[in-house]
Design a protein that fits this description.
CATH topology: Hypothetical Protein Aq_1857, Chain: A
Mean pLDDT: 84
Number of domains: 1
Radius of gyration: 15 Å
Order of helices and strands: EHEEEEHEE
Structural class: alpha/beta
CATH superfamily: HesB-like domain
Strand content: 35-45%
Number of helices: 2
CATH class: Mainly Beta
Helix content: 10-25%
CATH architecture: Sandwich
């Protein structure tokens, strides 16, 4: 599985790992979940969690990432970045291989 972590995200995530003392089977869990409507595709998130035997564990930029089997296809080729500008700050996950749910838009927007 290929996931890219930008330098700015690696710096912020490294500080987060130190702050929370992630040890043993714990790491930063990346996940995909269904979008807001049928056309939006999945949304992505990150949390601290423990790995289990069905998870894929990646070590990137000195950080342990955990991805569950259901999220791995959507997260293949994803980039984790940290944005800090006037309008917003925080982590972003861009995943070019994630596809919309299909079947048209059910939320009333074309």
């Amino acid at each position: 599985m290929l996931i890219t972590v930008t330098d700015s995200a690696a710096e912020k995530l490294g500080a987060l790992v130190l702050e929370h003392g992630l040890e043993g089977d714990k790491g930063l869990r990346l996940f995909a979940r269904g979008g807001g409507c049928g056309c939006s595709g999945p949304s992505f998130g990150m949390t601290i969690g423990a790995a289990d035997e069905t998870d894929q564990v990646l070590h990137i930029a000195g950080i342990r990432f955990i991805v569950d089997a259901e999220s791995s296809e959507s997260l293949e080729g994803a980039t984790v970045d940290y944005i800090d500008d006037v309008m917003r700050s925080g982590f972003t996950i861009e995943a070019p291989n994630a596809v919309a749910s299909g079947g048209g838009c059910g939320c009333g927007r074309a």
